[in-house]
Write a structure and sequence with these properties.
Elements: E1 8-11, H1 17-28, E2 32-37, H2 40-52, E3 56-61, H3 67-80, E4 86-89, H4 107-122, H5 124-129, E5 133-137, H6 160-181, E6 187-192, H7 206-215, H8 219-222, H9 224-231, E7 242-244, E8 247-248, H10 258-272
Parallel strand pairs: 1-2, 1-4, 2-3, 4-5, 5-6, 6-7
Antiparallel strand pairs: 7-8
Amino acid sequence: MAELQGKVVLVTGAGAGIGRETARALARKGAHVLAAARSQERVQPLLDELARDGHSAEALVMDLASLKSVRSAAESVAAKHPRLHALVNNAGIWSGKRTVTADGYEHTWAVNVLAPFLLTELLLEPLRSAKGRVVNVSSREHENGRMNWADLQHEKGFGARKVYQQSKLALTMLTNELARREEGRLTANSLHPGIIATELFRNFPGFIRFWINLLMRTPEDGAQPQIKLASAPEFESVTGRYYRRFKETKPHELVLDKAAAARLWDICREHTCKA
């Protein structure tokens, strides 16, 4: 019997890159995969492939830039799947310029922080029921980030890299706060998958994308750490950790600051409760 037979996992960003590779691998391990993407068309080729090979998966259409869409998708998952064994918050963006979502939030903050926060919050019951695993895809960039508490939306002095760094720092802080709040009921860990040639870099100049695609890890290779955290038996009880690929590493000092993480949690809850 496949090791994940009878288990349900949700992977965001499953339409491309390491999200697609993660969804594919977990389905091949026997899981029923909820492949989340902005449209059915994004994941249909993967669903067709998995169905041909006798694996189980379904599309979950969700726009992470819309809190309403995240809420709607989460409610449909919770209604259909009372037990969720793993949630892989994989999707993320690196915005080349400052844009604002329909909800009024800076785009990177909305997609990289508020969306996974809200999605996880709304799926706590099915995750608890399965003593599930939350795997948040962070980045080594978070280690050089800083929280601009006075201007989290970067209305002043927007810079693509520092905004991305802040978003991944925030996600890693929230991961550890979740691990503390839900200790014994679920596990939560974050990771840096490596520098991967994915659509994350679609806003970069063409010559940079060329070298990224030539020199960086493939999405299949990049997916391996999160596949392991989401499925390997040895990580069943591991929680509140940060990994660079497969190596546990000390994260940014704010990740270990309980007061700062709790403060951020309250801010995110305030932002998302309006959805």
